Amino acid sequence: MAFDDMDVDTIWMDGEFVDWDDAQTHVLTHSLHYGTGVFEGARCYDTVDGPALFRWEEHLDRLFDSAKVLDHDIDHTRETLTDATLSLIREQGLASCYIRPLVYYGYNSLGVSPKDCPTRTTIACWPWGTYLGEEAIEEGVDVMVSSWRKHASSQLPTNVKATGPYLNSMLAGEEARRNGYVEAIVLNKEGNVAEGPGENIFMINDGELFTTGVSESTLDGITRDTVIELARDLGYTVHDEASIGRGELYTADELFFTGTAAEVTPIRSVDDTTVGNGSRGPITEELQQQFFDLVEGRLDGYDEWFLEV
């Protein structure tokens, strides 16, 4: 969905609510040139008890941790960012939405060093459905292994959600789409599975779950962590620091992506090789249903993960 097609009109910028079309920055903004911003992607779900932010505190933790690594000094408290987000959702009448906080170095100088540039903070919210398409939730997606490799943590911090490194994700994803696939899988420098361009990946074999961890150059995803906990609560064995070879993708019983945008999306083929029976597998379906029951407020025992709007 294009922004022009959405009924949203306000963005929060450094303590002020501004009109959507006026939320602008200078063309010589440091982060525009060097990719020195950090960001988050969170969701507000329309639960049975009304709109609620899902795992907002964990998203704030990662935002502030990412900012610390890039030497950003966020001039706003967690409470301020939370209040701004809740106000945006309420004032725009959003029952459910995607939330994008962004922290970046602003306009002042254009040397590689950002030391003279101010840290700016913005928050935007808008309606956004399933990232890989509504039909993908039931039918799954066709993916390819990208020729691009995921950078190692010795090259760029892989535990940081920063803007610059997403060039890697863009290249991998666009390569896949040019070749007729919905999404990509990216290998790490050793040639093992890392993740998707914007998703973590799970493999299921013989009733057990395997997912790559931070040692494989993956982002420690919050949806990934959610699915791990849900799976264990259902009695499944989860190997959360697995090393998955490329060949194992082709022989897996089931594969699926997780992510704030992608939520839980089955993978039905890799490089034109059918995964399992070529449709959403039974364990994937069970975990997917459990996840959507959770975020819609129909599961007991997870109240601490929600902040009511």
From TrEMBL:
Give the source's domain of life in one word.
Archaea
EC top class, in one word?
transferase
Which keywords annotate this record? Answer: Amino-acid biosynthesis, Aminotransferase, Branched-chain amino acid biosynthesis, Pyridoxal phosphate, Transferase
Q: Which residues cross the membrane?
A: none
Q: Which cofactor does it need?
A: pyridoxal 5'-phosphate
What Enzyme Commission number(s) apply to this enzyme? 2.6.1.42
Q: What GO MF annotations does this protein's record show? A: L-isoleucine-2-oxoglutarate transaminase activity; L-leucine-2-oxoglutarate transaminase activity; L-valine-2-oxoglutarate transaminase activity
Coiled coil segments of this chain: none
What CDD domains does this protein's entry cite?
A: BCAT_beta_family (cd01557)
Q: Where does this protein act, in terms of pathway?
A: Amino-acid biosynthesis; L-valine biosynthesis; L-valine from pyruvate: step 4/4; Amino-acid biosynthesis; L-leucine biosynthesis; L-leucine from 3-methyl-2-oxobutanoate: step 4/4; Amino-acid biosynthesis; L-isoleucine biosynthesis; L-isoleucine from 2-oxobutanoate: step 4/4
Question: Could you tell me the Gene Ontology terms of the biological process aspect for this record?
Answer: isoleucine biosynthetic process; L-leucine biosynthetic process; L-valine biosynthetic process
Catalyzed reaction equations: L-leucine + 2-oxoglutarate = 4-methyl-2-oxopentanoate + L-glutamate; L-valine + 2-oxoglutarate = 3-methyl-2-oxobutanoate + L-glutamate; L-isoleucine + 2-oxoglutarate = (S)-3-methyl-2-oxopentanoate + L-glutamate
Q: Which family does it belong to?
A: Belongs to the class-IV pyridoxal-phosphate-dependent aminotransferase family.
Protein task: Acts on leucine, isoleucine and valine.
Specify the protein name: Branched-chain-amino-acid aminotransferase
